[in-house]
Amino acid sequence: MIRTTPLHSKLAAALIVTSALTAPALAQDTQPAPAATEAPASPATTDTAPDATAAPDAPAAAEATPDAPAAPAAAEAEAPAAAPDAAATGATAATSPEDGATDAGATDQAATGEAGTAATEGAEAAPAAETPGATTQVAAESDERAPQPQPEVGQDWPFWGGDANAQRYSPLDQITPENVGNLERAWTFHTGDLPEGAAIGKYSPENTPVKVGDALLMCSAMNILISIDAATGEENWRYDPKVSPDAIPYGATCRGVSVYTAPELPEDAPCKTRVIEGTVDARLIAADTRTGELCQDFGDSGQIDLWDGIGEKVPGWYAVTAPPAIVRGIAVTGAQVKDGQAEDAPSGVIRGYDAVTGKLAWAWDLGAPEAMKNGPPEGETYTRGTPNMWTTATADEELGLVYLPLGNSSVDYWASNRSEAENDWSTSLVAIDVLTGEPKWSFQTVHKDVWDYDLGSQVTLIDYPNGDGGTVPAVILPSKQGDIYILNRETGEALTPVGEVDVPTTGELEPDTLSKTQPVSEWHTLRKDPLQEKDMWGFTPIDQLWCRIQFRLSSYDGFYTPPTADKFWIQYPGYNGGNDWGSIAYDADAGLIIANYNDIPNHNRLIPREEADELGIKPIYEQGNQGANAEGAGDAQAGSPYAINVNAGWRNDVTGVPCTAPPYGGIRAIDIKTGETVWDRPLGTARRNGPFGIPSHLPFTIGLPNNGGSVVTKGGLIFIGAATDNLFRAIDVKTGETVWSDVLDQGGQANPITYEVNGEQFVLIGPGGHHFMETPIGDEVIAYKLPKG
Amino acid sequence: MAYASEPHSRPRGHWATTILAVVVALLGLPLLGLGAWLIVLGGSWYYGLAGLGLIIVAVLLAQRSMAAIWLYLLVWLGTLGWAYWEVGTDWWAQVPRVVAPTVLFVIILLFTPLLGRRTREGAL
């Protein structure tokens, strides 16, 4: 028995990893916010824009009907098709003011007002309102903000999510299940960015380059912008923004960059095509893709300080880890607000900047949308503690919308102190009209979130088959709970069935605050059945028995078991569940969603303030940035009555072995037409697990925690690292079988990409490892291709 | 060869068997104690019963009784049956349930000759 233990520990490690994964994700994500109130949120939200704006506190429907199916969240009003353009235009009008900063106010109000009145028609109304002298300007603006053709995926990988729709699909087909066995490393590039000193143990680079023309553009963990030759891996240039290690939030992460070509600039103008990144010390930086020189026309000589308007600067509390979404020339970014520190935390404000000038186009502060639209008045800050967006938004150039997967409020596990606005918007997908900066619709995935179920995945845009042979512009929204929703892009209306289920109990701590119902997807969920005592695990009967006892001692009523303080509660899935920042891939030809996921519980307890004080649990502004703690593992939640302790991945408190049985993660193909599972397989082998910590090199599939997404190709392959076994693998799309793999020296917790140079298809991954996943850290970027001839 | 012909191997068997008895008892005690707690909490009865079985096995080993083998066989078969009933053929779920008990079974079986000798001597 003893012998076995080691295995367990390995597994444990794996689990840990998982947790880590989760955690990271969480970390980033998580900011909890108030849950939204019931379903209606959507409606409210939806039209909302207006409402929200007008009366932040009066969430419309909010209370209305808890029971009502939140389902359709979005309200859609009806702005169907036509709307978009109209909206755009109209909106534009409204928007234009930005240029003339001053008028903005008036204009906006006008716009808003109208919008409020009739969301749908807002667009039209607005223009009218504006009309007066603005006609010309409007026209000009309209042109400038007209939808531009988007670069296509294939030879290039122009966006972080592959194509503009974030489908992570490539039409390349040179590499197939038949020849993938010959795949070999073409070159390896080192970013040179490795942790030193205080940064050790805090790296989780998650580096995913984009490929544009002959170059790969990427950012390292500490935000060094780098361009390399896509064929040879030789460096073209680099720009180091000199980020201080104390700015590292949950982890040193830069998931990627965005590339934007300004239509209004002459071909040979500097920064005609620019790369824009957000940094962990909260800057937005733009550089010329050809030279790496900062764009002097952008912000302050190429940079924008995102701390502006946020409040007192506490390094590590406010950080950008995701690439901005650029829509109609406006670069939209949120930020990661380190979870669980305090109710009085940096705002979750979403800001849109002109991608050429860096000028603030709008700010969407869900706590005070009107007042903060053009930034906070002197001496004020954006509304503190509001739900933020740490993950990647998706741009919809055609509709002029940007889809924001919001997280929770800053205090994740306590809901009673949240504002109505927080409750309305928390953990929702929100569509913002980039021309007006106002929400068009929203869809809430958790009401009054007290589980840190931030939306972590970038949403994917697709043409959803409507059953009549036609298609509807839609968005696929995966959640950490595992639910997969498909929504109408224009209206937010659910296109697949959404249920609103009664939760088992609202518990004893906040029985009147927590929602009595929660939304679920009745179309597809990655979530497994609730845990039972027999699902407890260990390496031997004794540690398994200990976990069974813990199971019996904990509060657990299934999905959405509310937090408890007198004993632990089991949260399943944990915040590391479902789909996370790696997001899904979508193969339109095969009609398949490819989703990798985690299946791991957390074991949590709210810690009464007095006890937390005795334990010395303090928020980041009192104890400094400790960084890299697992999300929720002793977070102060200052301002609320409880701190929180999360045992992410629920590992045995004595042995460290996971308390629940594998698999801890998998990958699944889902039929887009039916929502049915085509295949589903555990992801990850036991090769790094073994007795006494010695890797067994056994090929047994176990299903490990994984973090990072996949790429699906026309060649019939899925490429994915993600799992903590450090394998980079190719999976046959048809069967789910792994047909090729390569052992990485570091953890493959990054999204792979594929592209073509000189007629050769390359597949690339930047296995930087992940501190919480407990995989080795590195700075490699590895390109693969088939041998010549 | 020398060992095989050694007529006085009894002392070796004596202390080795005692150690085994102690080990089995150390495994059985937490199973019995924690298992009883689990029963009180409304959980599975397996652990408490298995723990009780191991403690009796330990006592029998200490007495050099061949019955230890037979009782452990019973516990082991019961474990296999219970494990299959709980989780079927889910291999990873079977790991904590059957691996350690099976390893212990093999170890106990290795002691059969010692117990056998002891038994014969006792019979004398």
Summarize the structure in words.
- Chain B: Keywords: Membrane, Transmembrane, Transmembrane helix.
- The complex is a heterodimer of chains A (789) and B (124).
- With 789 residues, chain A is α+β, with helices and mostly antiparallel strands.
- Chain A is 16% helix and 25% strand.
- In chain A, the strands form eleven sheets. A five-stranded mixed β-sheet of chain A has the order 1-35-36-37-38, with no helix packed on it. In chain A, strands 2-41-40-39 form a four-stranded antiparallel β-sheet, with no helix packed on it.
- In chain A, helix 4 runs antiparallel to helix 5, helix 4 packs across helix 6 and helix 5 packs antiparallel against helix 6.
- The N terminus of chain A is likely disordered.
- With 124 residues, chain B is mainly alpha-helical.
- Chain B is built from six helices and no strands.
- In chain B, helix 2 runs antiparallel to helix 3 and helix 3 packs antiparallel against helix 4.
- Chain B is globular and about 40 Å long.
- The N terminus and C terminus of chain B are likely disordered.
- At the A-B interface, helix 8 of A face helix 2 and helix 5 of B.
What is the subunit organization of this protein?
heterodimer
Please outline the major beta sheet of chain A.
Answer: 5 strands, mixed
Question: What would you call the shape of chain B?
Answer: globular
Which residues of chain B form runs of ≥5 with pLDDT under 50? 1-9, 117-124
Mean pLDDT of chain A: 85
Strand residues, percent of chain A? 25-35%
Share of residues in helices of chain A = 10-25%
Span between termini of chain B = 25 Å
Class by alpha and beta content of chain B:
mainly alpha
Strands of the largest sheet of chain A, in order across it?
A: 1-35-36-37-38
How many runs of DSSP E, i.e. beta strands of chain B?
Answer: 0
Q: Counting H and I runs of at least 4 residues, what is the number of helices of chain B? A: 6
Q: Main beta sheet of chain B: strand number and arrangement?
A: none
Transmembrane segments (chain B): 15-39, 45-62, 69-85, 97-116
Keywords (chain B): Membrane, Transmembrane, Transmembrane helix
Protein name (chain B): Glucose dehydrogenase
